[in-house]
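User: Can you model how protoporphyrin IX containing FE sits in this protein?
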Amino acid sequence: MKRDISNREDLLLLVTRFYEKLLADNSISYLFTDVAKIDLSHHLPVLVDFWDSVLFQSDTYHKNAMQPHMALHRQSPLLKHHFETWLRLFKETTDELFEGEIAFIAKERATSIATVMQIKTIQVS
Ligand code: HEM
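Assistant: Here's the modeled complex, given as structure tokens:
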């Protein structure tokens, strides 16, 4: 029986493994490496803050997560297959590591945020 997501250490494990998968997938990795040129040591803690706020109302993330994605989309289009891959890998990682109500909510929230993000990017295509 796996544990549920319960603290920031769990969130760091989740996003670290998730990004290993994203960066190993050539159909999406270039957006992180070549276009946005992310620095993982800076980016992963921001993601932990984001998910801590979403799942545990921690008040650690105060920015608008949509904005950098719209900027990214203007540089290199975010397409349907990118969202499908992002979501598939997020759900796969969550299921590999955790199980329970919070893990379920994380997948639900990821799905709804990705849906809104996709609608917003299609509007400016
Ligand atoms: C096609 C799907 C997606 C791609 C390719 C993608 C890619 C990226 C990239 C490259 C960045 C770094 C942007 C930068 O710092 O310039 C980023 C930031 C981020 N992404 Fe995504 N993303 C996707 C979907 C999502 C979804 C669905 C969520 C939420 C559930 C999400 C949450 C975040 C957060 C919280 C940040 C940090 C924003 C900040 O710095 O405040 N992403 N994403």
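A couple of observations from the model: Residues 8-123 form a domain with the Globin-like fold (CATH 1.10.490.10). DSSP finds six helices and no strands in the chain.
User: Helpful, thanks.
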